[in-house]
Write a structure and sequence with these properties.
The chain is α/β, with parallel strands linked by helices and about 180 residues long. It is built from five helices and eight strands; from the N terminus they run E-H-E-E-H-E-H-E-E-E-H-E-H. The protein has one domain: Isochorismatase-like (Rossmann fold), CATH 3.40.50. The strands form two sheets. Strands 3-2-1-4-5-8 form a six-stranded parallel sheet, with helices on both faces. It has a two-stranded antiparallel ribbon with strand order 6-7. The mean pLDDT is about 95.
Length: about 180
Amino acid sequence: MPKDSLPALLIIDMQQGMRDTPAPRNNPHAEQRIAHVLAAWRAAGAPVVHVRHISRTPGSPFWPGQPGAAFQADFTPLAHEHVQEKNVPDAFIHSGLERWLRVRGIEALVIVGVSTNNSVEATARSAGNLGLCTYVLADACFAFDKRDYHGTLRCADDVHAMALANLQGEYAEILDSRQALALLE
């Protein structure tokens, strides 16, 4: 595939603050899979976008200047890779992400990161609604235990699976990291 038609890899919220959460989560090997996909994207010369959440809530671990807002060491952007800051779960809202992609002729995205039912799902929904060919890597995202509307505690695997089900077909295609590497060929 020509480099100008390769999908962009969006790595969402892989920041220090995500390492410190006490809530149980799923996909314990997601970071390793994300790092593997990132290495493949870099080797292919494909576009990489690092999305960083910067909170507007004082005291948040993602408040500007707090250690939690920094990228995890394995996901530190290279000088030529794009960094997109966001203040809400959806990386397209109040940001220049869509314009950055369109100016470069990027029409496809591969989304990884955290959390599946929050920033990953919100960003993938917008990407799909914007007409971008969107892929979410099920094994390179993770979620946390969460109570549903009725107060029932749902395990992280169930939260993750439901978020992926919400996206499949209508907004995105759900792949695993191995399948995503074929997109670079």
